[in-house]
Predict the 3D structure of the following.
Amino acid sequence: MSNVDLQHITKQFKDVTALQDVSFSVQDGEFFVLLGPTGAGKTTTLRVIAGLTKQEHGNVLFDGENMNELPPADRDVAFVFQQYSLYPNQTVYNNLAFPLRAPLRRLSKDIIDQRVREVAEKLRITRLLERKTAHLSGGEMQRVSIGRALVRRPRIFLMDEPLSNLDAKLREALRVELQHLQKTEGSTTLFVTHDQIEALTMADRIAVLNEGRVVQIGTPTDIYDHPATTFVAQIVGTPRINLVPAVCENGTLYITDSDIHLPVPQDCPLPETFLLGVRPEDVQPTPTGKLVGEVILTEPLGVETVIHIKSGERTLLSTVSGIMEARIGDQLKFDIASQRLHFFDMKGKRIG
C-alpha cells in the first residue's frame, strides 16, 4: 500500500474552478474520507489521483514519487464508482476475474481462481459466482463492484459514493463490512461521500470540501467537536446544530430575540456580536432547568426524541434519549451545556 500526497491541486473546467489549491496527505493504510455537498470537488479529486483528469497546477505523489505524467493504467489504483460498471451478460466470476486477465498481469488460471474465490468469500458472494450480474440486486451488484477492486490488490483504493444507491438498511450493513475489510486488509482508501454518518463512522480522518477548497481536515471527533467554520458545523450532526446570533454584555451571553442568557466562558474572547452554535444533544430538558421555552413540535424517533423549543423569536432543537412525552404548547425547563458551546464570527469562522 502507499502514502498519497496532494500538493496545491487546482483544476478548472472552462469558467468553473472545480479544485482550488487542494492539499492533503493520506497515510499508508488509512481510511480517509472526502466529505462535502454535491459540486464540492470530491469526485474530481479522486479522478485527479487516478489520472483520469489532468490538473492545471499541483502534484500528485505516491510514496514521494510524482505521478503527474503517469497514465491511469500505470498508477495501480482501483476505482469503485457510484454506478456499478459491471458486464451484465457475464457471470459474477468473470466480472471479478476480468481485471486479472489483462495481458500485462500474466497471472495463471489457478492464481486468478484463487483470488476470485478469496474475494468472493470475504464479500459473501460465493453462491453468486455463476450468476449473471444482470440478475443481481443492487446490493449484490455493489459487492461485485467492490470485489473487482479488491481482487486486483492495488496500491490505493478510490471509492466514489459506492453506497449511495442502496437502501438505508443495506447501506448500513455494507458500511460495517467495508470498514472491517479495510482494517483487515490494511488498504490505503480514499472514500467520497456526502453522507455525514458514513464519514463519521468510517473515517480515520476526514477532509471537508466546499466549492473546491479544503475547509478542515481532522479526525471525526475533531470535525464534530471543533468545527472550523459554520459550514463544517452544519455538515455533521443530526439534527443539525443550532446556530443563532448572540451578543455579550457585562459578562453575560444573550441569544438575540429570545429570553435565553448564559454566562460568558472565561477562556474565550468574544466580539460584541457573534454566532453561537449549540448541538441539539447539549440542550437538555430538566425539571430544575434555569431556562424556559415553549414546545412547538416533537419528533419521536424511537431511540431519541427531537424537541423544538421556542424562546421569544428563536427556536432551538433538543434531542433526548428514548421517547419523551411533551405536548405542543407545554412550557419546558431546560439547560444548555455551557462547556460545549461553539463560537463563530459573523463570517462563519470559529472563535477560540
User: Anything to note?
Assistant: The first helix runs from residue 42 to 50. The domain at 242-344 is CATH 2.40.50.140 (OB fold (Dihydrolipoamide Acetyltransferase, E2P)).
